[in-house]
Amino acid sequence: MSATLKKWAHGAAGIVRSIAGIGVISPEEITRRRGICHHCQFARPCALSKRQMCSCSVCGCQIVHKTRLAGEQCPMNYW
Ligand code: SF4
Fold first, then answer.
1. What mean pLDDT do residues 38-64 have?
2. For position 45, what pLDDT does the model report?
3. If you measure from the C-alpha of residue 66 to the centroid of ligand 1, how many angstroms do you get, rounded to a whole number?
4. Pocket around ligand 1: residues whose beta carbon is below 6 Å from it?
């Protein structure tokens, strides 16, 4: 499996777990992570709302889902 395909599969599995509520962390920790992502130089703004950050340019993950999951880590070790 190519690196791009692995990255995509990891992201897709994370979205499914997040939506299903599997391995979701506390609301306080989600808020803390999202606060860090929101001000991160590697965060990409959302297409429809430039004031919100949607994805991480390092790992390609969707921030809204990545920050909810216990098994996820910031690729830059910011959280
Ligand atoms: S996951 Fe880490 S590197 Fe990516 S946007 Fe969030 S804080 Fe930045």
1. 92
2. 93
3. 9
4. 36-37, 40, 42-43, 56, 58, 74-76, 78
- Domain spans of the chain? 3-66
Model pLDDT for residues 10-32, shown as the tens digit of each residue: 889 989 999 999 999 999 999 99
* Global confidence as pTM: 0.88
* pLDDT-based confidence at residue 51 (cuts at 50, 70, 90): confident
Residue nearest (by alpha carbon) to ligand 1 atom 2? 74
Q: How far is CA 72 from the centre of its chain?
A: 8
CA of 21 relative to ligand 1 center, distance in Å: 21
Q: Which ligand 1 atom is the nearest neighbour of the CA of 59? A: 4
